[in-house]
Amino acid sequence: MIPGLSLVEKNICERIRLELDSVGLLYRLFSRCKDERSIKDKIERKKEKGQPYSPQGKLIQDIIGIRIVTYFRDDVDLVAQILRDKFFFVDSEIDTPDPTVFKPKRTNIICRFDDGQDETFQEVKSTFDKDYFLVMDNTFELQLRTILSEGWHEIDHSLRYKSQADWLDYPENERLLNGIYASLETNDIALKNLFNELSYKHFKNRNWEGLIKNKFRLRFQITSLDQSLIDIFNDKPELGKALYKIEREELLLQIYRSKLNFPLQLSTLVYLANALIIKDKDILEVTPSRIKDFL
Description:
Elements: H1 5-21, E1 27-33, H2 36-48, E2 64-70, H3 74-84, E3 88-94, E4 107-112, H4 115-127, E5 139-146, H5 147-159, H6 171-204, H7 208-216, H8 227-235, H9 238-245, H10 248-258, H11 266-278, H12 281-286, H13 289-294
Parallel strand pairs: 2-5
Antiparallel strand pairs: 1-2, 3-4, 4-5
């Protein structure tokens, strides 16, 4: 690892965690700084492919790599929207799937260092007299993936991307590897649909806590739903249906952009959903004053 860049890596990860934890998303975060050997290997690979890096041309943009692995497929786009508010997006590779081809979907985003991170980066460059710093950009790469596809991507990167010549004469094996990814993508869709179906069953059975937990799929604090809310939902089950029909991404983005600093509990989510979208007067009456005052 190049000394100094680990500080930039740590700062970026802390900022990402702060933003994603504020809305309780379920995810895992991985990061790495390229070491000297990895940098030289990448420069050599690009040269062999006839796509060399140069100070006046293409630069290495992923000296720091951050991978965010979400539990659910729909959170990939949600994470991208949240982080767009926090980081400066320079470029992206977001694939549109071809229904006739087995091929993984990339959601890779290049972000610019902020002023403080860039200052540290420039100090590192001036301290170390290495030629490869001439072809490094002051950027980092975000890779967004689901937890089901993460293992496949690791295998693909290590055993296909870095050894492409091994696959040239075996297209049937390459197609099979891509087909394995296709099955994982299908399972990603099935996983989300499973929880949507489960939340609807809880709505039909008037299990309001089950409805909320499985509809919104967040890292809730372990607390029970306020009895006052249970009573309201039991008296007015149409409110449960309104909660079920909320666009999850829309609500979570509104909560994030409101910068509300409350513990994420089942009841808190209902109070916020009502104040921001549903607007039922009975729920509003039992909403804690700290939430009403903030809104």
